[in-house]
Amino acid sequence: MNVEELQRMVDDWIREIGKGYFPPLANMAILTEEVGELARVIVRKYGPQVAKPSDLDRNLEEELADVLWVVVCLANQTGVNLTEAFRNTLQKKTLRDSKRFENKQ
Ligand SMILES: [Mg+2]
Q1: What is the value of pTM for the model shown?
Q2: Which of 26, 37, 54, 92 could make a disulfide contact with 22, Cβ separation 3.0–4.6 Å?
Q3: Which domains, and CATH codes, for the chain?
C-alpha cells in the first residue's frame, strides 16, 4: 500500500463506518492522546519506567499505527496530499542536513 492508497483507505473507512470526520481540533486532541499512548509504550520498553499489568496489552506497533491513523485523518480533512508533503519534507531535510551528521557516532 502506498501513501495515496492509505489516505483513500482511511477516507473510505471514515465515510462508511466512522460516519464522518471529527472536527480538526478534536482530531488534534486525539492525536495528542495517541502520542501520549505511544510515549507510554516507549518509556516502558526503552526507558526507566516499569510496566503495570494494564500496560501489557499495549504495543509499539499498535500505537504507531494509531498515531498514523489520526495524522492521515487530519491530512484528509484539510486537503493535504501526504505523498507530496512527505517528498517536500525529505527534500527540505536533505538540503538542510546533508552534512549535519557526518561526524555522528
Ligand atoms: Mg492508541
Answers
A1: 0.91
A2: 26
A3: 3-97 (1.10.287.1080)
